Amino acid sequence: MILRRVIDHFRKQEWTAIAIDFVIVVMGVFVGLQVTNWNEARALRQREIVYLEQLLIDLESDRVTGARGVASAAAVEDAANKLLAALQDDAGAADIGDAELMRSVLWAGYAYLPQGNTTTYNEMISTGALGNLKNTELKRAFGEYYGRLSAGRQWDGLMREEQSAYRASIRGLLTREQIVWARANVGRPIDVMSAPSDFDRADFL
To answer: Does residue 193 contact residue 178 with C-beta atoms inside 8 Å?
Structure first.
């Protein structure tokens, strides 16, 4: 319709009308482009919000996993100290019960390797969504955090080797029944009454 009107104005040499039509066309194109850009920007912001919400869930999961790892490390250290105290006949070793000693044999060599959840972050990198984050400080913080997560995994192989070596070194120290009981009670309050009664402390030491 606009094109017909412009042609008609040209035929009649109505230059003012032609100029008005030209302005209308240009403004229409400009407004159309602005609306398109606005819609794209809004879609990007909505997508950013979704990703940030997912990252928040991942980070909360990492916090819980990390807290579990810290608690596990403290428990492993406590078990190792008790086992060493009993083996070296340190002061207070007599206060360590047989059940606790049996459990400490297994727990002292246990390695819990908490893993962070990088699913959302990796997806943002692969789709280019990370580059669309408006907050550059937040983007940098995510990069540092997930970079440290990745760097921390370099010790996994060594820890597994050490754990395997420890298991080999304690082989035969406990009977099958004692090992089954100790595994079932790792991370739980000691139930002395349920512990195997055939543990010979002197023979073990």
So the answer is: no
CA proximity to 100, closest of 203, 198, 202, 181: 181
Q: What is the number of domains present in the chain?
A: 1
Distance CA 115, CA 110 (A): 16
How much is the pTM?
Answer: 0.69
Closest CA to 133 of 7, 141, 9, 96: 141
User: Angle, nearest 10°, between helix axes 98-107 and 15-87?
Assistant: 130
Q: What are the mean pLDDT values of the chain's consecutive 10-residue runs (205 residues total)? A: 57 62 67 67 80 94 92 91 92 90 90 86 89 88 91 84 90 91 85 85 88
Domain with 64 in it: 2-204
The whole-angstrom separation of Cα 117 and Cα 47 is 20
159: CB partners within 8 A, 6+ apart: 111, 113
